[in-house]
Each structure stands twice: as C-alpha cells, then as structure tokens.
Amino acid sequence: MSGDVVAPEALDSPTRLVTDEATQWLASMDEMRDDDATDRAPSPKAKDPVASHRRRFVSPSTDSSPVVCNKKRSESEEPELEIQKKRPKRKHRKSTINVRKEEKANLLEELAELHTKMEELKARAFATCVGVETRTPSQMQSANRLLRQAIQKQQLECTKIHALMSEYSLFNIRVGSPIHRPIHLHRDTHSRRATLLALKSKVLEDGAKFLNDRRPRVDPLKPMREDHGYEASNGDFYATYISTMQFENTVKQVYDILLAYFSSIEISVSEKLGNITIREDDDNMAPGITQNRLVSTTIGGLRMESNTVYFSRYEPGDRDAGPQNGYGIFVADFVDDDDLNPYHPHERIRRDFSAVLELTSYPIKHGVRTRSKNTSEGRVVVLTRWVHSKVYHPEYEIPQTGWHEMRDNTERWIQTLHHTMMERLSPVVCCRR
C-alpha cells in the first residue's frame, strides 16, 4: 500500500548490494585514471566535479585493496630508482688540516734543498784556509771575483749616503767653527787678561767634549787623516782637517814641544812655507794663554793676517786611571775684534783659525814598533788634531793666481805642525808581526 513505511530488511535486497558494488568499482577505476593523468601531466588541471563527487562515495577499504596498493608502491619506487641511478658517487674529501700539513711538508723539503745549495755555494766561494791550497787557480779567481762583486755592490749602495754626508759636511763648514766663542779684546792689558782668563776653562771644556764626539771610532794607534775644502758663493774659502799622530816619549814631553811651537810659530811657518811671517804682538797673557797676531807676506807680495788665542792645560793623570797616563789639550780660537790690533780688510787678507789638539797615551799593543826601546813603560803618545780655517775673500782686487796661492798656503799652513812634530819627535811605526 501506498502509505506504508518500508521495512529495514528491504535495504539489504540483492539489487541494492549489486548497485553498491558497481558504484565502488566505478569509483576505483576513476581514481586509477586520475592518477595516470597526474603522472603524465605535471601541471595542475581543473578539477572534475563528477570525479570528485564519485570519489566522495569511495569507501576507505578501496585504497587498501591489494591491487591498488601494489600499483602505487611500484609507481613511487620507480622515480626513486631513477634518482639513485643518476646521482654521482661522492668523492672522498681531504680535511683542511691534512692539506696544510702536506703543503708544509713540501715547503720544508724545498727549504732544505735551498739550504743545501746555499752551503755548497758558500763552501765554493769562501773556502777555509785549510782548503785554499787544494783549490785550483780558476776556483780562486772565481772566489775573488764573487768577493769583489759583493764589495762593489755594497760600495754602490753606500755612494748616495756618502754623497749626502759630504754635502752636509761642506754645508757645516760654511756655518763656521762649532767651538768658536765671540772674543772682543779691549786696549788695556788688565781688561784683555781678565777676558781671556774668564774664557779659558769653558773653552777647554768645550774643546775636549767636541773632539771626543768628532773623533772617528778607529784604532787610535793607527794614523788617520780626513780633510775637506770648499769655496762658498761669496768667495770665502773654508777648510777642515782632522788627524791622529803617534809618537814616542811621554805626554809631558810632547806637550812642551807643542807649547814651544805655538810660542814661536812664525819661525816654523816662514821656514816651511818660504814666505815672511812676523808677529805684531808679544803678549803672554797668563799661564796657559798665548796670543799670536801674525802677518805673512807671500812670494807674490800678498799679505795675510790672523789673530789667534791659544788656551792650554796639562794634567799629570793617575797611573790607575785607565789607558791615559798624563793628558794635555790645546784649544785655539780667533779674535773677532781687537781694539789694540785691529784688522785691515782693505790691505790684508784675513784668515781665522779654530783648532783642538789633544794628547793621550796608550799601552803599546802587538804589532806596534818603536825606534827606541826606552819608551816610557811601553806606552805610545797619540796626538789628535782638528782644525777649522776660513780665508776671507779680499775686499780689493787681486790676481786670480794670488787667490789660489792664498788657498794653497792655508792647506800648507795646517801641515806645518805635522812636519815640525815629525822632525822633533820619534814617530811610531805600525807593522805586522
């Protein structure tokens, strides 16, 4: 009848079961078709509303069916196998510390080879005295050539420095004497004496300090000489001279000879230079102070004047006071203004002198020979001398040859002391033993 309710048993009719099974089979077929389409086309496509509606009714038991699971597993394993086949094998990589160790080992081997080659070259060029006899003449020539090239290379590298030092020395000469102190002497004797006595101690102290700094650090028992000469842009001629001389006798004996030389310097200068030199003063101001006002006339008739004061001091010294056994020092400086004996720039050419002479003694060393076996307790007297001179360009006309003569006489004037000392004292001879 039309209004009756259907019984629950009617839902399980055979027709309804067949319909459900057919619906599930169609849904599984649609799902398999969709998976194949997804594998073939990577780009996403629009969703099918019918298929999605059909999948909505698929039972969970459908995905777990053996056929479907095996197919999905095979499809997922295939791309993994392809990726494993395409992926290259990973190579073994060394650690950074191992790489650094290998580099260090290689460098150490190279360094050892270089050291070996260097030792071979040194042994070839600088053979010891024992093996010199076994070397051939060609090997000796090669070694000498290498040494000569090395020395010349060092000399060339020092040439610019030497030029700069020479330039500085010449510029320093033009500045003037580094030990000069302005000296102005008045007419009265008492004032002149007081002025020089006040300067004596300070002048001697400055002279000793300057010479100690200026003296080259070489063996004092070996002769040494160094001189410079330079003509400035205004025509003035400057010259410096430093030397060491070695004598026998004692410091006191050499000191007395120098004192006598400066007291009668005009005689020695006239004899050695061949010109006429006279003194215009006879002033012995005080012990240890001597003034020399000298006027020289050259062979060409030119006149030159100088006004110099000599300060001196002698110290006996102590036998236990080191290498010195007695000490003597002379410091000479020119007078700037002398009211009693003024300069004559329009008649004479002016020459200024500054000098330091120091006397010391040293024990005789091996290789130093003296002519006398009675040298005082085996000691040598060393005279160290530094001289600075300036010849003013004349304010009146003179021949060019006369000006050259003046410059030459200045250099010869400096050498007169050396010749005088060589004549009066016994020089020391340095030799090899």
What do these coordinates show?
Residues 97-124 form a coiled coil. Keywords: Coiled coil. Residues 1-96 are annotated as: Disordered. Residues 86-95 have a biased composition (Basic residues). The protein has 433 residues and is of the alpha+beta class. The protein has a domain at 175-430: START domain (Alpha-D-Glucose-1,6-Bisphosphate, Chain A, domain 4, 2-Layer Sandwich). It is 48% helix and 21% strand. The protein is built from eleven helices and twelve strands. Strands 2, 3, 4, 5, 6, 7, 9 and 11 form an eight-stranded mixed β-sheet that branches. Strands 1-8 form a two-stranded parallel ribbon. Strand 2 (224-231) and strand 3 form a beta hairpin. Helix 10 (265-273) crosses helix 11. It is elongated. The model is unreliable at 1-12 and 43-64 (pLDDT under 50).
Q: Under the CATH scheme, which class of the domain at 175-430? A: Alpha Beta
The CATH homologous superfamily of the domain at 175-430: START domain
Determine the strand fraction and express it as a percent band: 15-25%
Rg over CA atoms, rounded to whole Å, is 55 Å
Oligomer kind: single chain
Topology:
Layout: H1 14-40, H2 49-56, H3 60-63, H4 66-86, H5 96-125, H6 129-132, H7 137-175, E1 184-185, H8 189-214, E2 224-231, E3 237-247, H9 251-263, H10 265-273, E4 276-279, E5 289-297, E6 303-315, E7 327-334, E8 337-338, E9 349-363, E10 368-369, E11 379-391, H11 400-424, E12 429-430
Parallel strand pairs: 1-8, 6-9
Antiparallel strand pairs: 2-3, 3-11, 4-5, 5-6, 6-7, 7-9, 9-11, 10-12
Helix pairs in contact: 10-11
Please provide a brief summary of the model.
The protein has a domain at 175-430: START domain (Alpha-D-Glucose-1,6-Bisphosphate, Chain A, domain 4, 2-Layer Sandwich), CATH 3.30.530. The chain is 48% helix and 21% strand. It contains eleven helices and twelve strands.
